[in-house]
């Protein structure tokens, strides 16, 4: 079904605020990640204490923040956004993440970053897709949170294979030394955004690069976290 401005992207009912994209009812009914580890966002007994996996092998980031598992309806929105030429969904997804992040921020679960970075898209893939799907989400987030955002601070140094369909070992090899940083991140709190986190390999490589560059802390942000 074709969704036009002024209608909810999920239930297709009229919106009171057209720019919201998703109505209050659909937003309230979204399945949330609950009782997950604050560092890996995988099921855990406590949302306040790192799980055994993260205590044994801590990831380079301090918080992994995602709205929900990679399930409908948000998984369908992401697929429509990325693969069916619907860039207007960027601000809708950005707003959904913002509302989720603000709730945790008000509860004191995480802090505001000094910089927001987006996982870069290779120029060839950007040309094929027709837009930078990460940049279009990250840019309004940085504006709303009043955090600096420069899309060229984190770059791909070489073309990589699509991570989908690769094993965990192949993903790691595919992204080894694939990123490079520009700018000074010494003693800075940085957030890195990706649309979906599966194994976390992409964000792991980028986060390690930031920590080696002197960043004080890293938050991993995503719309969905595959469980």
Question: What are the key terms here?
Answer:
four-stranded parallel β-sheet, PRTase-like, DNA utilization protein GntX, alpha/beta, 227 residues, PRTase_dom, ComF/GntX_DNA_util-trans, two-stranded antiparallel ribbon
How much helix, percentage-wise, in residues?
A: 25-40%
What is the overall shape?
A: globular
Show unreliable segments. Answer: none
Main beta sheet: 4 strands, parallel
Class of secondary structure makeup: alpha/beta
Spatial sequence of strands, sheet with the most strands: 1-6-5-2
Quaternary organisation? single chain
Number of helices: 8
Termini distance?
A: 29 Å
Rg of Cα set:
17 Å
Counted beta strands? 6
Estimate the strand proportion: 5-15%
Mean residue pLDDT: 88
Q: Give the ordered list of helices and strands.
A: HHEHHEHHEHEEHE
Protein name: DNA utilization protein GntX
Domain Phosphoribosyltransferase: 170-224
Family: Belongs to the ComF/GntX family.
Notes on the structure:
Helix 4 packs across helix 6. The model has no long low-confidence stretch (mean pLDDT about 90). About 35% of the residues are buried. The strands form 2 sheets. A 4-stranded parallel sheet has the order 1-6-5-2, sandwiched between helices. Strands 3-4 form a two-stranded antiparallel ribbon. Helix 8 links the parallel strand 5 and strand 6. The protein has helices at about 25-30, 50-55, 75-85, 90-105, 125-130, 135-145, 170-175, 200-210, and strands spanning about 65-70, 115-120, 155, 180, 190-195, 215-225. It is of the alpha/beta class and about 230 residues long. This is DNA utilization protein GntX. It comes from Xenorhabdus lircayensis. InterPro entries: ComF/GntX_DNA_util-trans, PRTase-like, PRTase_dom.
């Amino acid at each position: 079904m074709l969704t036009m401005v002024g209608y909810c992207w999920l239930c297709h009912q009229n919106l009171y605020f057209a720019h919201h994209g998703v109505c209050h009812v659909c937003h309230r009914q979204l399945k949330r990640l609950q009782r997950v580890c604050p560092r890996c966002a995988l099921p855990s007994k406590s949302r306040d204490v790192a799980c055994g996996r993260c205590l044994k092998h801590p990831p380079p980031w301090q918080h992994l923040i995602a709205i929900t598992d990679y399930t409908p309806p948000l998984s369908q929105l992401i697929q429509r956004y990325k693969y069916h030429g619907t860039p207007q969904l960027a601000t809708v997804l950005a707003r959904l993440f913002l509302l989720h992040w603000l709730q945790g921020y008000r509860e004191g679960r995480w802090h505001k970053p000094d910089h927001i970075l987006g996982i870069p898209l290779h120029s060839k893939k950007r040309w094929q897709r027709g837009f930078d799907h990460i940049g279009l989400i990250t840019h309004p987030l940085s504006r709303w949170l009043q955090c600096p955002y420069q899309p060229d601070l984190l770059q791909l140094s070489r073309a990589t294979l699509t991570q989908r369909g690769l094993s965990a070992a192949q993903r790691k090899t595919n992204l080894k030394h694939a990123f490079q940083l520009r700018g000074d991140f010494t003693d800075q709190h940085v957030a890195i955004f990706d649309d979906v986190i599966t194994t976390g390999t992409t964000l792991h490589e980028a986060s390690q690069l930031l920590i080696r560059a002197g960043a004080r802390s890293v938050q991993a942000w995503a719309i969905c976290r595959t469980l």
